[in-house]
Amino acid sequence: MAKDYRTIAEVAGPLMLVKGVSGVKYDELGEIKLANGEIRRCRVLEINGENALVQLFESAIGINIEDNQVRFLGHGQELGVSRDMLGRVFNGSGKAIDNIPEPVPEKMLDINGSPMNPAARDYPNEFIQTGVSAIDGLNTLVRGQKLPIFSASGLPHAALAAQIARQAKVLGKDEQFAVVFAAMGITFEEADFFISDFKKTGAIERTVLFLNLADQPAIERISTPRLALTTAEYLAFDLGMQVLVIMTDMTYYADALREVSAARKEVPGRRGYPGYLYTDLASLYERAGRLRGNKGSITMMPILTMPDDDKTHPVPDLTGYITEGQIILDRTLHNSNITPPIDVLPSLSRLKDKGIGKGKTREDHADTMNQLFAAYSRGKEALELATILGESALSETDKLFAEFSKQFEQKYLNQGNNVERSIEETLNIGWELLSILPKEELKRIHQEYIDKYYIEKKD
User: Fold this and answer.
1) DSSP conformational letter for 68
2) 78-350 is classed CATH 3.40.50.12240
């Protein structure tokens, strides 16, 4: 039977010390009853003998250490999950905020999930179409993959996230596809943008939204991605759905971890982040994947903003170690009105070769992708050379590559946030651009594909 404790010894910021407890466990939930009858929630962070250090979900204002009492509930934070969560909007605590009654849960799940046995994992090898050429054509997303988006302050990652959420699909299969969208530390305007965009396009019907606003507690920011992933695991592994999880912004999540760590007076690591940041991020990212014998899957696209556009910042740095590539947004492209401003040269999808080719996308996809990368890179070099030495220093072939580079950015990368392209359209645009170049320069494409897809210029 749960006990009520009137032994609150100290309250410091988001932390509270309760003495004389027994049978209390790490990560257990608790309720604080104020003198006016108000109930606030807390979670056990640390047990030291008979002392429990707990973290407050809400503000500490109004808590009186003499009059208030604490009750521990005997379990960690749980989420009631059901198919009816699709089309609904929840806050960072898992409570519905769309003015509709709470869905009736089919089961209660611990939000920390269960580790996925590495031996039971199935290899990601099926294409997911996002409708964005820079991703589908050159940095392909594969079902079960973890592919983060590295952005920066002022870049349109929110619009790209919404575009991917409403356009993503599995091709050629009669399978249910769902999106779980988790937003952490966002403004009210951003939250309103996501909700209205999904409702306007009808994408809300297959989406579950978890929204944590910037003025809400740090503890909610820490639990939001776990709620989203618990929902995704239920939809994928219990209901057999193909689930895409989009989480933005992981930098705000890491900042919440740093805030709690500082309050606990832990020894800080790089830039003040806790030393366990890598482990904590891995506990989230590694919940994506496929299970052998289960037709469901979880594909993850975490989004993070790099402070000062610094790729060596701890959050993008550690994220890069755990995940399978990165999509990088570029400020120069954004300033040139390229939408979405994806810089494809430093971007990488380590599993792209597994999800393309005959029977998945098209037989010429791999060759086209490699040639586009090579031609764009050479074109950028030619443009830089022209800037330094003048256009007269370029050979006729270099001028063609420079023109290719300009056309590539305008026609391939620049598609806007409201245009969805099929993989067929993306590959055809690639061939249209490659046809700017002479056939003899297409050294990375098999001759049979050149004969089939190359567009001859008309005199």
Assistant:
1) -
2) yes
